[in-house]
Amino acid sequence: MGGRTLHSVLPPRPGAGPVAQATGQDPETGRLDLRPDVPACATRLRLLTASIIATADGHVGSAAVRALRILPPGAVDTTPPPATDRPAPVRPRSDR
Predict the structure, then answer these.
(1) Cβ distance 9 to 45 under 8 Å?
(2) Cα torsion for 47, 49, 51, 55, to the nearest 10°?
(3) What is the mean pLDDT of the chain?
(4) DSSP string across the chain
(5) 21 or 93: which carries more pLDDT confidence?
(6) How confident is the model over 44-65, as pLDDT tens digits?
(7) Range of the structural domain that residue 63 is part of
(8) pLDDT in tens, 28-39
(9) What pLDDT shows up at residue 69?
(10) Domain assignment present for 46
(11) Which residues pair with 20 in a beta bridge?
């Protein structure tokens, strides 16, 4: 599979954009999380798991991806997580 990209394994549907988005990766386990846009794409990802892993590893040049986790279909939440569990410090009001 040398030289192939994930895009070549999972080309976008005509006029619909990407079929899935990588949403996370666990370097300790080598798991790559993918969120498909519709249920049919989730099935397609599961059927092509071996090809996707081989392509990802070929792209980065190592065995960085050893497993896939196919998340439920839907939009990806791009809101960054809060920096800490503590509430933001309260600024004193300036007197005017």
Answers:
(1) no
(2) 150
(3) 75
(4) -TT--HHHHSPPBTTTB-SEEEEEEETTTTEEEEEESSHHHHHHHHHTHHHHHHHHHHHHTSS---EEEEPPSS----PPPPS-SSPPPPPPPPP-
(5) 21
(6) 889 989 988 888 888 877 888 8
(7) 29-76
(8) 888 988 888 888
(9) 92
(10) yes
(11) 36
Q: Which residues, other chains included, contact 13 with Cβ-Cβ below 8 Å and sequence gap of 6+?
A: 19
Rounded distance between C-alpha atoms, residue 42 and residue 72, angstroms: 8
The domain total for the chain is: 1
The answer to whether the predicted template modeling score (pTM) of the entire model surpasses 0.90 is: no
Inter-CA distances, 77 with 8, 45, 74, Å = 25, 20, 9
Report which of 26, 24, 27, 37 is spatially closest to residue 10, judged by C-alpha positions: 37
d(CA 34, CA 17): 15
Considering the domain boundaries, does residue 85 fall inside one?
no
Taking the C-alpha atoms of residue 72 and residue 39, their distance in angstroms, rounded to an integer, is: 8
